[in-house]
Design brief:
Elements (H helix, E strand, L loop, with lengths): L4 E12 L2 E12 L3 E5 L6 H8 L10 E4 L2 E2 L5 H6 L2 E4 L11 H10 L9 H14 L15 H12 L6 E5 L7 H16 L3 E5 L3 H7 L2 E6 L2 E7 L5 H9 L16 E10 L3 E9 L3 E6 L5 H9 L6 E6 L2 E2 L5 H6 L2 E4 L3 H5 L6 H6 L3 H4 L8 H14 L16 H13 L5 E5 L7 H16 L3 E5 L3 H7 L2 E6 L2 E7 L5 H8 L1
Parallel strand pairs: 3-8, 3-9, 6-7, 7-8, 13-18, 13-19, 16-17, 17-18
Antiparallel strand pairs: 1-2, 1-4, 4-5, 9-10, 11-12, 11-14, 14-15, 19-20
Helix pairs in contact: 3-4, 3-5
Bound molecules: adenosine-5'-triphosphate and magnesium ion (MG).
Adenosine-5'-triphosphate binds next to strand 2, helix 1 and helix 15.
């Protein structure tokens, strides 16, 4: 037994009906280390941590040691008692309860008494936050907080008990860059105090910024564990994907066929004096630092939070949009950044989810849904977005996070909008599949769809955008031609 190992998992396998999600995996985590668990969508990362937290039982033969002690039949409560806290992709918080109730919740699990003592609840929550040196409004209902704050609540919940290992499953996918920085400083602080972190993410730059060691999974198999100094982007990607990945840089087109025009759009506190044109069949990139107003602008155009003043023209005609329904009726679709919490009906099948937005298209004139049309549609999307496994009847909750993202993408793409606004299109999607999504967006644009891609990933913008709007503090700092554009030129305008 190695010294200083907080956690050792050996020979961990997990079989679901028809799927071998994990085969003979190992994972070792030292005290006070930040350990990254990486692999493509469906590689088995979330399944492995659900075994660690007692949500799933592993197949026969697994050995799991915590502080050198062999664990039999880990239960969710047992794993909490051993100081292991998991923050899931969707946080698993209760939106209608207060911050204090959400934090103190775990202290009540497994207790017989149902009596809720407000004072005790507040004290438990206050103590947990104090250990993190954080302040949050204890009496506020969770749903009123920003995503970043909700995540802090989920972290604080880990501190109700004595925590030794915090597992974070894609904690940054819904955070802005500034929020990621503050999360990282919290994580570094926890490490100083000897707490270990297991971190799952598809963002390589973040992984390199924070991790001491990496464990790599591919297709449910263990590839290896490496120190940060042994890896660089290329090596990591080829270990993870089994091949080299480079974004294809598409030829940039010069189009002059205005479809959508925005004139002097303003929204106090969000953006100011925004004007641009989107051509038919064009991909327009919008980038800029976080807080630059990109998502706010998209939401205003889509009617989620209308602008104060300004004019929008569609095909030369003034457009008055006050709700998302009106946008959709005009052929405008918006795929939000935070789609896992907004876009998916977890208890429904892949098929039901994909067809949800296009029921009228696949129904016959008596309103009955044509099975054949439905199959055809779903098969197309499963193929185009490489959704795995290829089982249209599988319920969405059983899919890996990245495959759930693909379902939400297809659900909106199926509406065949004239104008598509997509916020961080490859959020939560593994590096191998990002290029597929780029190709798909390019294909759609060639079929005449006009697309606005909002992305903070500059390589993505450089790969696909014909033109690029760079936003800075709510204004358009520059409109750049996508031809021969470099990251440096974009950064210069963004800063
Ligand atoms: N409850 C379940 N029933 C059946 N199959 C499941 C279940 N949960 C997960 N799987 C399958 O196990 C495999 C691994 O999924 P997992 O969620 O662990 O992937 P992941 O590495 O977390 O991927 P992502 O990066 O997309 O989140 C996938 O093929 C998934 O469909
Ligand atoms: Mg996952």
């Amino acid at each position: 037994m190695a010294q200083n190992m907080l956690l050792e998992m050996h020979h961990v396998s997990k079989t679901f009906p028809g799927v071998k999600a994990l085969q003979d995996i190992q994972l070792e985590i030292q005290h006070g280390e930040i350990h990254a668990l990486i692999g493509e969508n469906g590689a088995g990362k979330s399944t492995l941590i659900k075994i660690l937290s007692g949500v799933y039982q592993p197949d026969e033969g697994a050995e799991i040691f915590i502080d050198g002690e062999l664990q039999k039949d880990i239960t969710p409560l047992g794993s909490l008692k051993h100081g292991i806290a998991v923050i899931y992709q969707d946080f698993s918080l209760f939106p209608n309860l207060t911050v204090a109730e959400n934090i103190a919740m775990v202290s009540r699990i497994g207790r017989k008494t149902k009596i809720i003592n407000w004072k005790e609840t507040h004290n438990i929550a206050k103590n947990a936050l104090a250990k993190l040196e954080l302040e949050l409004p204890l009496g506020t209902t969770l749903s009123e907080l920003s995503v970043a704050k909700q995540q802090l609540v989920a972290i604080a919940r880990a501190f109700v008990n004595d925590v030794k290992l915090i597992v974070m499953d894609e904690p940054t996918s819904a955070l802005s860059r500034g929020e990621v920085e503050s999360l990282f400083s919290i994580i570094r602080n926890l490490k100083e105090r000897g707490i270990s972190i297991l971190f799952i993410s598809h963002k390589l730059d973040e992984l390199f910024a924070i991790s001491d060691r990496f464990t790599i999974l591919r297709d449910g198999k263990y590839i290896g564990t490496f120190g940060e100094e042994e890896l660089d982007d290329d090596r990591l990607i080829s270990l993870m994907v089994g091949r080299r990945i480079e974004y294809k840089i598409f030829d940039k087109r010069t189009l002059n066929d205005p479809l959508f025009e925005v004139h002097n759009l303003n929204k106090a506190g969000n953006f100011k004096d925004i004007s641009f044109t989107l051509n038919r069949g064009e991909i327009l990139g919008i980038t800029g630092l976080v807080g630059a107003g990109r998502s706010e602008l998209a939401q205003a155009i889509f009617g989620l939070s209308p602008s104060d003043t300004g004019e929008i023209l569609l095909d030369g005609e003034p457009l008055h949009i006050e709700s998302p329904e009106q946008s959709v009726a005009h052929g405008i679709s918006y795929i939000p950044e935070n789609r896992l919490t907004e876009g998916l009906v977890l208890k429904k099948s892949m098929t039901d989810n994909i067809c949800l937005t296009v029921l009228n298209k696949i129904s016959n004139n008596r309103g009955l849904i044509g099975k054949e049309a439905q199959h055809e549609l779903v098969d197309t999307w499963i193929h185009d977005l490489n959704i795995k496994p290829n089982l249209p009847n599988m319920i969405a909750s059983k899919l890996s996070g990245g495959n759930q993202q693909r379902i939400v993408l297809s659900k909106w793409l199926a509406t065949e909008p004239k104008i598509l606004i997509v916020d961080e299109p490859t959020n939560g999607i593994d590096i191998g599949a990002k290029a597929d999504i780029h190709q798909l967006l390019r294909d759609l644009s060639e079929q005449g769809m006009s697309i606005i891609v909002i992305s903070s990933e500059l390589p993505e913008i450089l790969a696909i955008a014909d033109r690029v709007l760079v936003m800075r503090r709510g204004r358009i700092a520059a409109t750049l031609d996508g031809k021969n554009l470099t990251q440096e030129e974009i950064m210069k305008e963004a800063l």
